[in-house]
Amino acid sequence: MSYLAYVVAAWLFLVSFYAIVTTRNLIHVIVCLVVMQSSTYALILSVGYRTGGTSPIFLKNEAPPGTPAVDPIGHALVLTDVVVGATVMALLLALAIQVQKRRGTLDPHELRPMKD
Amino acid sequence: MSELPALVIAVPLLIAALLMALAKVLPRIAADILAIVTAAGTTAAAILLLQVSLGKTVVYWFGGWTPQHGVAVGIGFTIDPLSAGLAALVGLLVTAALIFAWRFFESVGSLFHALMLVFMTAMIGFCLTGDIFTMFVFFELMSVVAFALTGYKIEASSIEGALNFAITNSIGAFLTLWGIGLLYGRTGALNFAQLQRALATIPTDSIILPCFVLIASGYLIKAAVVPFHFWLGDAHAVAPTPVCVLFSGVMVELGVFGVFRVYWLIFEPALKPDEPKIRLVFLLLGVATSMLGAIMCFWQRHIKRLLAFSTISHIGIVLAGCGTLTARGLAGASMYLVGHALVKGSLFMSAGMLLQRFGSVDEIELRGRGREWQWIGIVVALAGLGLAGFPPFGTYQGKALIDEGVQSIGQRWSQWVFIAASALTSAAVLRGAARIFLGWGRMNSEAQRSPTEHEEKETRPEADRVPLMMIVTPSVMVLLPILFGLSFFFMPATEAAAERFMQSVSYSATVLDGTPTGPVKTAGSVSVGPDSIVLAFATALLAISIALGDLFGDRLPRTLARWFGSTIDLLLSPLRAIHSGDFRDYAAWLAIGVTIFGGAMAWALH
């Protein structure tokens, strides 16, 4: 397994972090969080990858037990992660809609709670 | 009985689903009763688990997937006295919050109750789990429900507070997940005990340290430790009162619990850390957090925001207690946490009542308006003394044990910082109580400049009288420690539980090999030095004099007052400036914080 996958994961994380710090739009932030979450998918999938491995479903004829296979636990983790991520993003988007309704803007500079 | 660990999670979740499904048809009173009974039952179950775990650490494998040849194949709960005690505290506070909310949000049916039950389940699962990925899932569930509850009132400012909370904490969760992913890649394990054994067999390389730093950073963000604390003020100021009780009372503290759970069970045996250096890192974090929280707390006029910063300050003390890495310090932190949760819960509830009655939680606006409410005034003043660590509140014993902990590691100086911090936070509450319930003090130009916000009432606007339940709950929470015979009774057991929490090797033997742990050994009695009572009185006196000084400061000679005012201003203006309310700034601070924490850990471990 080459290191490239890990580099991609780290790059996705850092670039989305940078974008969150410099953003000007709330929807953009939420998309950045999706990208950041994707970096964790990339990481966990590359951790579980085995070069030349098949999918971890073992059959008597085609892939008998003992055939090299990719790690199914990584898949389970990513699936759980996707569910968690979908919940967070749905909630954040709902909040963003409410913000737009009430304040008429999505610029974070205008949207500071407890403004002096 | 043997299935109890699963039922503690499953039953509240099912009831929450039921409440959600029947939200449209269920009468409000039925939803109230069902939710309160469920929360109280869960509390009772957690206390039962606590009692069993004092005999031996309870290990429960879901679906009967027990370890094969010392390798964990299933997902398990491991319940030791400290985690069960924390779960019981969660249940207790949720019950109290639901009772307090008896008449809250009349129009919205039972959705609120369902969310509260899911929140409780997530926090209890976080305490009891024996698996790092399951811990992450409960952590995320807890976060998502918390975001939704923060924005529950759907007003402009509550949504913005919820957004700041959600964005910073989501970044934290991804950091934790990165740490877990790297750790899994290095060891192939997710179970705490399995991870501990796997790390012992492989050479310690440069991956292990970042794993700890990333996982711990995510939890420290939840714990609102400086410089990760910014979200807390925004979220607490706008969340509904019963939710604030839970946020301040347990959710934030669970972040600290998470850090030390993974430290002791996974990393401590492998990293063989240089303990004095690690202690120093946590102590400095704790000191910075408690001082910054206390200073920000004292100069607020929005009462909920004031209480939020006070929570930050007390979290610093809890973190330092755990960070002594001694059983005494950890036991102190646990007792402190319980005492603080009760006191702070009743303070938030009192603030909620003010909001309900007068439609405001602004200290200046409310001046003198609470004169008819002497009883609530007494409750608030007592709770204020509780924040100063005054006996018989749990904070007193906790502080005394933490003091002994920091003395035993040779960092006596930090004790004085914690006295200053608790005196300031206590003074802020006492000042508020004197101003609102007695009408003391005049307009203070400094206080007028801090941010404030107008909130909508949380119950029906025409409800002018405060329901009885709203008054009873905070009173009981404050009086509980007094009635309970000073809770000295719990000190030996807490210290023994803390020792058990730190025994990582016997933990993994219990989980993987089934070697039974003996009952928690309690020393006959744990005595607190006589100077702790002197210090407690001194702190309370200090708090009262600071409060009086702030209320009547305008009677000082004018030059002195002006000099004092400008000094404070010099100190406060940069602090106010960094609490900008803009999540982009918070994210930048988060990056700086992770870098500093990582650097400090690298220094401590090599």
Describe the structure.
The complex is a heterodimer of chains A (116) and B (606). With 116 residues, chain A is an all-alpha fold. Chain A is 64% helix and 0% strand. Chain A has 3 helices and no strands. In chain A, helix 1 (4-22) packs antiparallel against helix 2 and helix 2 (26-48) runs antiparallel to helix 3 (72-103). The longest helix of chain A is centred in the C-terminal third of the chain and has 32 residues, at 72-103. Chain A is elongated. Chain A starts with a helix and ends in a 13-residue tail after the last helix. The mean pLDDT of chain A is 87. Chain B starts with a helix and ends with a helix. Helices cover 72% and strands 1% of the residues of chain B. The mean pLDDT of chain B is 87. Chain B has a two-stranded antiparallel sheet with strand order 1-2. Chain B is globular and about 75 Å long. Chain B is built from 23 helices and 2 strands. Chain B has 606 residues and is an all-alpha fold. Chain A binds chain B through residues 13, 17, 20-23, 26, 29, 33, 36-37, 39-40, 43-44, 47, 73-74, 77, 80-81, 84, 87-88, 91-92, 95-96, 98-99, 102-103, 108-109, 111-116, and chain B through 133, 137, 140-141, 143-144, 147-148, 151, 154-157, 159-164, 166-167, 170-171, 174, 177-178, 181-182, 184-185, 190, 233-234, 237-238, 302, 305, 449, 451-453, 580-584, 587-588, 591.
N/C terminus separation of chain B: 47 Å
- Rg of chain A over CA atoms, rounded to whole Å, is 20 Å
The largest β sheet of chain A comes out as: none
Portion in helices of chain B? over 70%
Low-confidence stretches of chain A: none
Question: By helix and strand content of chain A, what is the structural category?
Answer: mainly alpha
